[in-house]
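Sorry to interrupt, but I need a hand with the structure work. Could you write out one complete protein record for me, on any chain you like? Could you add the entry underneath, on a fresh line?
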Amino acid sequence: MVAVTERAKELLLQMKFAASINQSKLGFRVKPAADDRWSLVPDEPAESDEVVEHAGSTLLLIDADLSEALGNGEVDCIETTAGHIELVFTRGEDRDAGSPPLGV
């Protein structure tokens, strides 16, 4: 199961409002993208999804197969050198080894 920090949940909620996604059941589906990055696509939860909610709203949808592959990773936020806040994902084994996170 993927852990999501409180600050990442707050950022995802802000992103949802900024994208004018007003339905509480819609969230962002995690999809693999190029260059070890992840994309977030608005979608409805499927029965087998891992669903992350916050403040009564669905935020993140992770397919069961992807969730298993990601293991005990974590979604968090970092501040870039330009001062922007970005979501990052760190796999459990990468956190233990001190490897840098993957961009979302």
